[in-house]
Write a structure and sequence with these properties.
The protein is α/β, with parallel strands linked by helices and 250 residues long. It has three domains: 11-52; 62-125, membrane protein fhac (Ubiquitin-like (UB roll)), CATH 3.10.20; 128-248, Rossmann fold (3-Layer(aba) Sandwich), CATH 3.40.50. The protein has six helices and twelve strands. It has helices at residues 8-53, 73-80, 93-101, 169-181, 184-187, 219-229, and strands at residues 62-66, 106-114, 118-125, 128-134, 137-142, 147-151, 160-162, 190-197, 200-205, 210-214, 236-238, 246-248. A hairpin with a 7-residue loop joins strand 11 and strand 12. The longest helix is centred in the N-terminal third of the chain and has 46 residues, at 8-53. It is elongated and about 135 Å long. The chain starts with 7 loop residues before the first helix and ends with a strand. 21% of the residues are buried. The chain crosses the membrane at residues 31-53. It comes from Nocardioides szechwanensis. One of its GO terms (biological process) is cell septum assembly.
Length: 250
């Protein structure tokens, strides 16, 4: 069959229909492209969520401990109770931090995820500024008045805090503030600190001389006054009111 010749008008109409068909196809493909992209995004997000929060691909399988001095890694890991094998993203870091900070010797702890499989526990231990005897045991006392740890013998360089049966926790904290404020050379001359109440704190020096300190208020000023006062020959030095210090023979 012979091919029918198209007139210029027919060819123009045919080209118009083809261009229209291409535009229609392009519009349909653009719409489907967004649908396909959205579906791929859903699959990727869903797969990623499953991999991170529910599968064992990113499970916690190690615990790293840093910053400890007297504690061992195993002691920290034991109290931390990190749920090894659980997805790392679902591990409760706050709960681990609370458990580690429940150790008396721990001042603070920071817990973080170390992708892809580890939990990092950074420990800051308390530092003793004095030793206090409680129920027959020597315990450390930090600058915040927190009692922690035990010692067989008092460490060198740490003054001992003596309490009575009626010494309150507030009074013990005051004593800790006093000791923490002492310059190192003065602290080295202190045999022990006696604590009766929050404003009845005294220092017993190693040479037998006694210092009435009062409360922890103005401790730095009291220490400066005492340094000069100790040059005077006396047995008792009173710096409880640093602006009006006194000395006596007994």
């Amino acid at each position: 069959m012979a091919r029918t010749a198209h007139t210029p008008e027919e060819r123009a109409a045919l080209q118009t229909r083809r261009r229209f068909a291409r535009r229609q196809w392009a519009r349909r493909w653009l719409a489907w492209k967004y649908v396909v992209a959205a579906l791929l995004l859903v699959v990727l997000v869903g797969g990623g969520t499953y991999a991170v929060f529910f599968s064992d691909a990113l499970a916690a399988d190690g615990v790293e401990v840093t910053g400890e001095r007297t504690l061992t890694d195993d002691q920290v890991r034991e109290v931390a109770r990190v749920p090894l094998g659980d997805p790392l993203a679902r591990v409760d870091l706050d709960a681990i931090q609370r458990r580690v900070e429940s150790l008396p010797v721990v001042k603070s702890a920071e817990v973080s995820r170390q992708w892809p499989h580890d939990v990092l526990i950074e420990v800051e231990e308390r530092t003793a500024v004095a030793v206090v005897e409680i129920a027959g045991s020597l315990r450390g006392l930090d600058a915040e008045g927190i009692v922690f740890g035990t010692y067989r013998e008092a460490p060198d360089g740490l003054p001992r805090v003596r309490t009575t049966a009626t010494t309150s926790g507030d009074a013990l904290r005051e004593a800790a503030l006093v000791v923490a404020a002492l310059p190192s050379d003065l602290a080295a001359r202190v045999n022990h600190v006696e604590v009766l109440t929050v404003d009845q704190i005294a220092l017993e020096l190693k040479d037998g001389r006694r210092v009435r300190w009062g409360s922890s208020a103005q401790s730095e000023e009291k220490a400066e006054v005492l340094e000069a006062l100790l040059l005077q020959d006396a047995q008792v030095y009173d710096v409880s009111v640093p602006g009006n210090p006194t000395t006596s023979s007994r």
